[in-house]
Each structure stands twice: as C-alpha cells, then as structure tokens.
C-alpha cells in the first residue's frame, strides 16, 4: 500500500512538473525580445519594468485569494482553472496591437502563474513525508527553472529565424499546456490533507478524516511563526536581484557587452543549467543537513547566498571578449549554481513548520513576498537604467544590475538568523500533531 502510494505520488508529481514547465515558460518568454518590443511600440526599459512588475505583483495578490481557496476546496480543480487563466492571455499576447494590450495580457498571464504557486506546493506537502519533501521541493523548483529557461530559449532562438519577431514565442509556450492540464485533471487525484504527517498520517490513510476549519483572519497567525516571517522578508530581498538580473541579462549582454542575442541566449542557457544543478544539489544537501540538524540548512543557505552575490557581481563586471566566451560561461554557471542552492530548502522549511490546512495560504503569502521582490527588482533595474541613461552615464543597465545584486547580502544575513528558530518551530508542529493524534483516537 505504501509503495503504491509512493508510485502514485511520483506520477502525480511528474504530471505537475510538466504543467509547471510550460506555465513558467510564460514568465521569461518576453525577455529576449525586449529590444524588439521597445522598438515596435516605442517604449523604454522603464515601461518594460512596469509590464514585468504587473505580471508578478498582480499575480501574487490574486494568489492570496487562490491560496485561501486552496486550503478550503479541491486543489486539483483550482489548479486546472489557474492554468487556463494563465495560458489564454499568454496566447493572446501574440496578437497585441499596442503596448496597452500587451500590458493587460501579461498582467492576466501573471495571475494564472501566481495562482498556481500555492496550489502545487500545498499538494506536494500532502504527497510526500517529511524525509522525502526536500527532494520533491527540488524537483518542483527545478521544473519552474526549466520552464523559465524554455521560455528564454524559445524566444531567443525563434526571434533569429522568423519574420514574426517577438510574437510567435507566445503561441509556442502556451498551446502545449492546454493538452497537459487536461491529462493532469483526468489522471491526478486530490491528495488527502494530513496523510503524510508525523503521528497522524496513518490515521488519515485509514479513513479518519483530518478536519480543520480555516478563516481569512488566519493569515495573521501564520506571520507569527518566526520561520515564516523571516523567510518572507528574506524572500523580498533575495528576489529583487532574481527579478532584475535574469530578466535583463540578454539585453545587457547585447547592449553593453556587444554579444548578439543568439549568443547571449546561449550564455543565459548555460547559466540556466547551473541554476538547475544548483536546485537539485541544494535539495540533496539540504536533506542531509536537515536530518543532522535543522538549523544547519538555514546557515548553509545564508553562506552560499552571500558567496553567490560576490560571484554575480564578478560576472556582471567581467571584461568580455570572444576569446573569453568559455570563461564567462563557466563563471556564470557557478554563480547560478551557488545562488540556486537556497530555493528548494526554503520551500521545504515552509512546509515543515506549517499545518496541512495552512500550506496553500502560506505559499500564497510567500509567493506575494517573492513576487513583490521580483516586481520591485524589475522596476528598480529598469528605472535606474533609464534614469542613468538620461544623465548620459554609460553602461547604465550594468550598473543597475550591480545595484540589484547587493540585496542578496541582506537576504544572506536573514537566512543565518533563521538558524536560531527553525528547529523550535518544527518541534512545535510535531507536538501539535502528537496531541492531535490523541484527540483523533478518542473520536
């Protein structure tokens, strides 16, 4: 029975991964086409910063509502509708006649992407036990990263071979998910809440229902958990550079390093591979450290984030020439690898300190803080770049991206502080489940 449940969980996870890859391709599909879009619609980096900020921030605000629904209703059905909400306007983005239409379609796409975030992590928490969650979080986080790379690759390479310029990629990254999400809805079962938890999991699997009422006011109680609060704040700081640097990177290469878009896309993809390996390695290392001492996971994340910030600034200020292509690629690979070690561990900690009925909401808040940071980062970099350019300062985009990278140091400090609270918060949740088991047996 346990083996069958494990296989079912893995198949469900794989279908979820396929959905997320295509859905998250929507996020970065516009990035390689920034120059073309600006030329087509007569806008600047500032307007692009606004459109990308709307994608992330509006979507994150809507995900708060979706997170509440996710803790109360069937998450599989909600995920189905969130994917449709994301993919339909993504497809329509290809037919934008002006900047306003593109802005509206991108904002609507962001709503779909943001709404899916709390649902998938909540479902995964009820598919896998505590000891297996770091690996599951790594796989889900990797699928999100793969999707972003796919979006970049599709747009970057399509723009070099088709007269449709920046429009065709929106069609290519949206259409497949209409098929995948239908398969997902037909084959994946809604996981039972609490079925993989300490002390009560076997009771839930045997048929004793895990009943918990929630209310909108519970959001305030979630912030009172110190691990949650610190992860929210570090998420804002850490995603400011994550929002700015990847999004403007190909444009930065083209504009200030004289690297053609196709070559810049190749370099970005190499960075992306480093990101993927970093996520997988982070999940594995985090799993080992978590089972030794839970606070070590947070310290590991803090140290590697600080190191990654130094590497990022070295990459941005690299004195590039064609002969140094491989050096830049290697440096970028290890930068992305180092900075990506944190992601899956943060999500694992969030699951392991929060009750099953709270997880969709906690990830909706986490998505809000992450998206807020991402939106601020894109707007920050775009505005700083445009402002410096107006003053006649050269390499304005590169300077803006360097300023963005500084926020990783603040993120690193908070992750180190978090080590003081993680073990206590995990134990509090286990004590709660132990007491709940006694109550469930009495009934």
Question: Which helices and strands, and how do they pair?
Answer:
Elements: H1 2-28, H2 34-41, H3 45-70, H4 75-93, H5 99-125, H6 133-158, H7 168-187, H8 201-205, H9 218-223, H10 226-256, H11 261-292, H12 294-316, H13 325-339, H14 343-352, H15 359-390, H16 396-405, H17 407-418, H18 422-442
Brief descriptors of the model:
mainly alpha; 443 residues; 79% helix; single chain
Q: State the secondary-structure class.
A: mainly alpha
Secondary-structure element string: HHHHHHHHHHHHHHHHHH
How many β-strands, per DSSP?
Answer: 0
Note the beta-strand portion. under 5%
Main β-sheet description: none
Radius of gyration: 21 Å
Mean pLDDT: 87
> What does the overall shape look like?
globular
Distance between the termini: 25 Å
Low-confidence stretches: none
Helix content: over 70%
Count of helical stretches: 18
């Amino acid at each position: 029975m346990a083996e069958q449940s494990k296989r079912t969980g893995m198949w469900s996870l794989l279908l979820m991964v396929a959905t997320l890859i295509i859905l998250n391709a929507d996020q970065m599909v516009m990035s390689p086409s920034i120059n073309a879009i600006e030329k087509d619609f007569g806008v600047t980096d500032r307007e692009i910063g606004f459109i990308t900020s709307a994608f992330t921030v509006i979507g994150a605000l809507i995900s708060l509502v979706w997170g509440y629904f996710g803790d109360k209703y069937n998450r599989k059905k909600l995920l189905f509708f969130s994917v449709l909400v994301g993919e339909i306007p993504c497809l329509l983005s290809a037919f934008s006649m002006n900047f306003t239409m593109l802005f509206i379609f991108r904002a609507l796409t962001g709503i779909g992407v943001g709404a899916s975030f709390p649902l998938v992590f909540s479902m995964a928490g009820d598919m896998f036990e505590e000891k297996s969650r770091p690996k599951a979080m790594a796989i889900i986080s990797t699928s999100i990263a793969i999707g972003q790379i796919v979006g970049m690759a599709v747009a970057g390479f399509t723009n070099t071979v088709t007269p449709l310029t920046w429009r065709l990629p929106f069609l290519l990254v949206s259409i497949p998910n209409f098929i995948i999400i239908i398969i997902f809805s037909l084959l994946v079962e809604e996981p039972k809440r609490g079925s993989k938890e300490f002390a009560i999991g076997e009771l839930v699997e045997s048929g004793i229902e895990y009943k918990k009422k929630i209310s909108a006011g519970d959001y305030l109680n979630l912030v009172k958990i110190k691990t949650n609060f610190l992860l929210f704040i570090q998420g804002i700081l850490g995603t400011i550079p994550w929002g700015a640097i990847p999004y403007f990177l190909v444009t930065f290469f083209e504009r200030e390093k004289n690297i053609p878009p196709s070559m810049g896309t190749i370099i970005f993809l190499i960075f992306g591979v480093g990101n993927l390996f970093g996520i997988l390695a982070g999940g594995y290392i985090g799993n080992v450290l978590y089972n030794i001492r839970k606070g070590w996971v947070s310290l590991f994340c803090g140290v590697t984030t600080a190191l990654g910030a130094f590497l990022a600034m070295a990459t941005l200020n690299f004195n590039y020439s064609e002969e140094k292509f491989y050096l830049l690629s290697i440096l970028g690979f290890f930068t992305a690898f180092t900075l990506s070690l944190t992601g899956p561990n943060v999500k694992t900690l969030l699951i392991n300190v929060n009750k099953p009925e709270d997880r969709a909401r906690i990830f909706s808040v986490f998505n809000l803080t992450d998206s807020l940071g991402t939106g601020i980062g894109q707007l920050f970099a775009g505005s700083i770049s445009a402002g410096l350019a107006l003053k006649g300062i050269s390499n304005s985009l590169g300077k803006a991206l360097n300023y963005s990278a500084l926020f990783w140091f603040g993120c690193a400090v908070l992750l180190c502080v978090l080590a003081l609270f993680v073990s206590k918060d995990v134990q509090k949740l286990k004590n709660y489940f132990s007491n709940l088991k006694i109550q469930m047996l009495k009934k």
